[in-house]
Design a protein that fits this description.
Radius of gyration: 21 Å
Strand content: 15-25%
Number of domains: 2
CATH topology of the largest domain: TIM Barrel
Number of strands: 19
CATH architecture of the largest domain: Alpha-Beta Barrel
Bound molecules: zinc ion
Shape: globular
CATH superfamily of the largest domain: Metal-dependent hydrolases
CATH class of the largest domain: Alpha Beta
Helix content: 25-40%
């Protein structure tokens, strides 16, 4: 799978390095899947049959990295009962849909969601799947199969729920032994930690409110044992804080720490409602935050303190979150929301376009414990997103790189993963996208209809 590629005449190469350097008129060479060189001098001479890609008229960035998602929810987007509700009532409505949702449905959701993400610049994708209705056994395997066919780097956060509440029906719960055995088997079979990894497994209870204390403790132990990521939702709403204090006698972060989550390979989705003391705690333990601006705005949850997290040296990355609270998976568009939401709270100087690109590249990679992706540097993975220099919505822009974030989000023209061209001229190679969309629409309708029986 690792491939060679020479990208020539790149109008703007955004390196996302420490100096936020941008090269004009650049070349970049990938060999055996990794960046071998780049520069603005003459491109290296390569054999006649060496694979090449033109960067003319394009802006190249490191492939974007998505750190939290629920791909299955793309069958529940813009679902009327929850469209004007906050997190808990929205969740209660959405959770009713999945009793008859099975592996073949998830396969289609995963492919469609990955297509959305790829066309918006993503090369590495984390998904948090926690719905395993009754006899559904191979959900995560299905996701690896779909991601493998699409050619992206996939981090499967093996979710879990074993704690009954008003929000969750019995058919959605699994017992602790089943959850832990399946998660461990997935780690053993699929997790690759070496540079260039295409498959990783993350231990990911859905939330402290939907899992027993025993499961939260065992999940942290399992992640530490295998040195893999540990992930859950935390700090999303004020109601969650109140519930946690009432039910567990502690705020959510304190409760997780009580369950052994003091782990520098742990990260929490949302992280909106942490106070100053909790920011210091996150920094102390190396626990990071996946920022999900669209979902936070859509559900009216609040604004994550991203610039302050960065000031505290807390790891933070970007995430489109679930397709039913976003309700899309456009990663460049998500960065634009992060970029603007930071300005709503902290002023126009809080985040630049290049800061937003950092958030979507090396910061997200760092959050998920990867130092082999997210920057244009020799030795990093050959994962490159190439966006058209301009489109109708950015026509005539004086600063084309800033325009990537300031103007309306666009799709990539090309996407390269490990030196392989996966998108060329806005088409995902080897994918019949109209057929996939038809299949997905049909199944989404079925999921909605069967839930009413
Ligand atoms: Zn989520």
């Amino acid at each position: 799978m690792p491939a060679n590629l020479l990208i020539e005449n790149i109008d703007f190469l955004v390196t996302a390095n420490q100096e936020q350097r941008i090269l004009c008129g650049a070349w970049l060479q990938i060999e055996d899947g990794f960046i071998r060189g780049f520069g603005t001098d003459s491109a290296p001479s390569v054999p006649q049959d060496y694979p090449r890609l033109s960067g003319r008229g394009k802006i190249a960035t490191p492939g974007l990295v998505n750190t939290h998602h629920h791909l299955y929810q793309n069958m529940a987007r813009a679902y009327t009962p929850g469209n004007n509700q906050s997190l808990l009532p929205w969740l209660a409505n959405m959770n009713k849909l999945w009793e008859y949702f099975r592996e073949d449905d998830l396969y289609i959701c995963t492919k469609l969601g990955i297509a959305e993400l790829m066309l918006s610049g993503a090369t590495t994708i984390a998904d948090h799947h926690y719905v395993f209705p009754r006899d559904a056994k191979n959900m995560t395997e299905t996701q690896f199969e779909a991601s493998d066919q699409m050619g992206v780097r996939f981090h499967a956060s093996r979710g879990s729920m074993n704690f009954k509440s008003d929000l969750i029906s019995d058919w959605a719960l699994q017992d602790e032994d089943t959850i832990l055995a399946d998660t461990e088997a997935l780690i053993t079979k699929h997790h690759v930690s070496e540079p260039g990894s295409y498959q990783q497994v993350i231990v990911a209870p859905c939330a402290a409110t939907s899992c027993s204390k025993s499961l939260l403790i065992a999940s942290a132990q399992l992640a530490k044992l295998y040195d893999v990521g540990l992930h859950t939702h935390c700090g999303e709403t004020l109601a969650e804080n109140e519930y946690s204090v009432e039910k567990f006698g502690a705020r959510p972060l304190e409760y997780l720490l009580d369950c052994g989550w003091d782990y520098d390979n742990a990260w929490l989705a949302h992280g909106i409602h942490f106070d100053d003391e909790e920011l210091a705690t996150l920094a102390k333990h190396g626990i990071g935050v996946a920022h999900c601006p669209n979902a936070n705005m859509r559900l009216g949850s609040g604004i994550c303190r991203v610039p302050e997290l960065i000031d505290h040296a807390i790891k933070v990355g970007i995430a489109v979150d679930g397709s039913a609270s976003n309700d899309s998976g456009h990663l460049l568009g998500e960065l634009r929301q992060a970029f603007y939401l930071a300005r709503v709270k902290y002023g126009a100087e809080a985040m630049s376009a290049l800061d937003a690109i950092d958030l979507g590249t090396w910061r997200s990679a760092n959050l998920m414990g990867r130092d082999d992706i997210g920057k244009i540097e020799i030795g990093k993975c050959g994962d490159i997103a190439l966006f058209p220099f301009e489109d109708l919505y950015s026509n005539g822009a004086e600063n084309p790189v800033d325009a990537l974030l300031i103007c309306h989000p666009r799709q990539v023209s090309d996407l390269v993963i490990g030196g392989n061209i996966r998108v060329r001229e806005q088409q995902i190679i080897g994918l019949d996208l109209p057929a996939l969309r038809n299949e997905h629409r049909m199944r989404a309708k079925k999921v909605r209809e069967t839930s009413f029986h």
